């Protein structure tokens, strides 16, 4: 049916003028947006509910007399509001998202479907255990996979995110030291390249942080480490592969040194996706390691959570795992240990109200079952290959921070931008115009103007080649003095560069009705 | 393997460009003794969608889902109806498969919804400011306790006897390592105000709950004044966010920090997670808050936009001096919350809350009409406690055997002498007259 343009064929006509601003505020397919507080109404609702019965309230006079001030939208209005907003987001499903250290890999929709099965999604955390055997089965199977992949003794599933997993591991170390009469050990060694969560976690557990220097090759400076060992050292928090995207080749030595001085080895498992299925952290001397299910096992990042940070533990630390945890009874039925007094071990406590992130467990388990031991290994290898390919193709255009092969992410510094008038930030903003989410910038701190690129295994060679071509083009533009392309970027995003300084100086953290001319007149 | 795009030829070409002969050469830094010769033993190999789906379905079938039976469990997690629009929208690629909005120019969808979320939460709880969410209610409570110690520079924490025992345990786990001293009051159905007697000049905060774990409602207005007069903060906890469609919000009672569980709005039971912790406070404590914050600003053209802000509180800037080690929020659950809240609006929320209250009133009348069953909550919103003539955990097991999920025995949360017969029963808009009749009949038979 071509009735709309019969006799009026459309053909492009060349125009000289710049694109006019529109009367609607739209830019073609990009629709204008507003806040729900501007379009909604206190009287409107998008939910039809059965009538109330007018029963006498039993609130002892505590009935709410005020409005929440929250407007409602009808269902079509709400749908349009959120769909329009969604179109102002970039996403993995749109294009490559090479945010280093964040592992933005494909999120399979089978995982979403499985997480919504009623035996996992529509069960209450305090139903009798006899009625939640399916949900407990997911937890038991996930534990089996995590323990087998890491070569560790036990796993605490309940931590709600990576940083929460760090807390779990460090609290287990704290408890183990206390139990051994080693409560004077309160100093934790943290490399200066570490994620900010590491020192923050250590402090939250009552430890003090002592920084270890990075060596010239981007790894832990062994000599500095040796001088920091001592009677008061509780342990080390080390990311491996580290935040420079490098495998700590002296990791066994580091583990031996720490153990030899009476401390524990916490490994930040944020980068486990580089080695999963190929290397077992248990073989490296690790005592505790959190695993970000939202990175390695592709549970969706959701715009900033929910995450999930199960923490695997060595023989020495497993008895101190927090409650609750799943056990298998003699008859094959699964049970939960929910109270510290009911435990055979010495749990350091409880971290959350219930059992952790069930919705993430079922997604991660689905990922594991789909990939299998062979697929997980292949995924790690492809992730490492992709990062090395990007590094090899860009090394002549940008300055690689450290020589040699990398693991799952390639790290560049800003030496190559010197004298161009373009900063790492400007370069990142120009990538937005190219249709890519920028890499992680200014992290790790040990590299000046860091640019950390993690392609993940989900990218095809064609996708990587397109990215490399775009990055090379930008690099040449920066060096040839096309500064405005960077300093004014982004030009093609839904908004221009945003003023973050202003947001922090006078914080506006919630909507407030604009002051009307009548109110001003009345004052 | 359907998720991995490379062909063997692709891999070979890429290895050649890197300048190595095999993928093994990329793992040269791994110590010899830790190198494996093939896929890890003891795990199955890759499977297709059909096989995986069949396996997971079989596992799911081993649970009794809440929607398939008369259902009355609460105690911190509640079964509500979630509109189909909510689950559709949160599965849009642009929301589901994006990251924390570190590059706000390409994440306005996420940051604006967080800004709207914060505004809705502040309105719901009647507080000055709310953050962009926490992991869940219990971790929000733990962070509030640590924040109160930071604000007051004091060390003693007082928990009421009506605080959810798991919240108490989770807060204790975090607080004890921060050098804080915990004073937990005896379990009490209706004595939230007793916390005042334990306040001294070392007290950082008191933690009370409304509705409390027994469903009891308390007005904290006078308590808040008294606690603040002694230089401590009042932390008000809740586990059922729908309540504030009907009952006086903690902000109006003068609470300094309000924390709780937002699962009830937009989110499924999910066996306890992921959920969405709500965290709100007074403006003067804004810079002491943990967690992410979205704020309004302008772009280079002067147009309105939104960014994450006040990040100098956070670990990636402050490292060991951060307000918390928290590095994420509960983004997608917060999105579900805000979409559901937008569909409800003030009017719908109040209506929904009224339906919940009425369902609980009818359930309480029916259950307490059973001989030997005593309603112990003096007032309530959608959850109440009853004392059975026999052990509540056994009664719940016996009801489950007859496909009725009849509530949560208090002993499940915390074994406590004298509370073995206490049963917590919740009703929501999903509860039908038939469910109530079945519960009553079944409970009668098992006690």
From TrEMBL, chain A:
Alphabetical UniProt keywords: Oxidoreductase, Pyridoxal phosphate
Keyword match Oxidoreductase: yes
EC number: 1.4.4.2
Domain Glycine dehydrogenase C-terminal stretches: 379-473
Reactions mediated catalytically: N(6)-[(R)-lipoyl]-L-lysyl-[glycine-cleavage complex H protein] + glycine + H(+) = N(6)-[(R)-S(8)-aminomethyldihydrolipoyl]-L-lysyl-[glycine-cleavage complex H protein] + CO2
Residues covered by the Aminotransferase class V domain: 180-302
Keyword Transport: no
Role according to the record: The glycine cleavage system catalyzes the degradation of glycine. The P protein binds the alpha-amino group of glycine through its pyridoxal phosphate cofactor; CO(2) is released and the remaining methylamine moiety is then transferred to the lipoamide cofactor of the H protein.
PANTHER family: GLYCINE DEHYDROGENASE (DECARBOXYLATING), MITOCHONDRIAL, GLYCINE DEHYDROGENASE, DECARBOXYLATING
NCBIfam families: PRK04366.1
Official protein name in the record: glycine dehydrogenase (aminomethyl-transferring)
Provenance organism: Candidatus Phycosocius spiralis
Gene: gcvPB
From TrEMBL, chain B:
One Pfam family from the record: GDC-P
Keyword Oxidoreductase: yes
Highest taxon of source: Bacteria
Entry keyword set: Oxidoreductase
Domain Glycine cleavage system P-protein N-terminal: residue ranges: 1-442
Record has Oxidoreductase as a keyword: yes
EC numbers: 1.4.4.2
InterPro entries, per the entry: GcvPA (IPR023010), GDC-P_N (IPR049315), PyrdxlP-dep_Trfase (IPR015424), PyrdxlP-dep_Trfase_major (IPR015421), PyrdxlP-dep_Trfase_small (IPR015422)
Catalytic reaction annotation: N(6)-[(R)-lipoyl]-L-lysyl-[glycine-cleavage complex H protein] + glycine + H(+) = N(6)-[(R)-S(8)-aminomethyldihydrolipoyl]-L-lysyl-[glycine-cleavage complex H protein] + CO2
Function field: The glycine cleavage system catalyzes the degradation of glycine. The P protein binds the alpha-amino group of glycine through its pyridoxal phosphate cofactor; CO(2) is released and the remaining methylamine moiety is then transferred to the lipoamide cofactor of the H protein.
HAMAP family: GcvPA
Family membership: Belongs to the GcvP family. N-terminal subunit subfamily.
Subunit structure: The glycine cleavage system is composed of four proteins: P, T, L and H. In this organism, the P 'protein' is a heterodimer of two subunits.
Protein name per Swiss-Prot or TrEMBL: Probable glycine dehydrogenase (decarboxylating) subunit 1
